[in-house]
Amino acid sequence: MYAAIVCQKCGRNRVIDLDNKTSTCPYCSFKAETKAVKILFRGETANDVRETLVQKAGIVQEKKVKGPDPDPMSTLEYNYGKAKGLDKHTVLAEGLTSIKGTFTISDVRLFEPDKADKMIEQMMNMLIIIEERPGKYRVP
Fold first, then answer.
1. Residue 104: its pLDDT value, please?
2. Are residues 47 and 94 in the same domain?
3. Which residue among 44, 63, 97, 133 sits deepest, i.e. has the most Cβ atoms within 10 Å of its Cβ?
4. Within a domain: residue 64?
C-alpha cells in the first residue's frame, strides 16, 4: 500500500511505501517515520497515488515527444550487437537503409570487417536487400 504525504521539512508532496518503517524525502533528504506522517490519501500502487496527486494538484503533464535519434549509427551498433543469428542481417540492413538510404559494402565493414562480402551475399540471397545500383544496397 502506498500513500501521498507532505514532507514535514520542505513541504513538498511525495509518495511513500507504507510497508517501510521510514522514508526519506527525495527533495530535502529529511527522514521521517511512516507512522508519524500525515497521510493525504492511499492507493494500491505508487503509480495510482502519483496519478491522484497530479490530478489533485491540477498539474497538466505534457506527453513526451520522442525527438530524432542524435546518433543513429551508435543506436544501430547497439541494436546490431544485441541481435542474434540471422536477425543481425535484418537489423543491419534496415538500420543502414534507414540512416543512409542506400549503403555500400564499406558501411557493412564498419560492423563486420572480415565478413562484409559474405553478409552482403547472404542478405541478397535471403531477399533482405536488393542491389539498387552496382555496389549500392537497400531494403526493398
1. 96
2. no
3. 97
4. no
Contacts of 61 (CB under 8 A, 6+ apart): 54
DSSP 104: -
pLDDT at 61: 61
Q: Could you read off the pLDDT of 32-87 as tens digits, one per residue?
A: 999 889 999 899 998 888 888 888 877 666 677 778 878 999 999 999 999 998 89
Residues 53 and 85 occupy one common structural domain: no
Q: Give the chain's domain count.
A: 2
User: DSSP E strands: which ranges in the chain?
Assistant: 2-6, 13-17, 22-24, 31-33, 39-43, 130-133, 136-138
d(CA 76, CA 70) in angstroms, rounded, equals: 12
Q: Residue 34: which domain range? A: 2-57
Q: What are phi and psi of 132, to 5 degrees?
A: -70, -45
> What pTM does this model have?
0.54
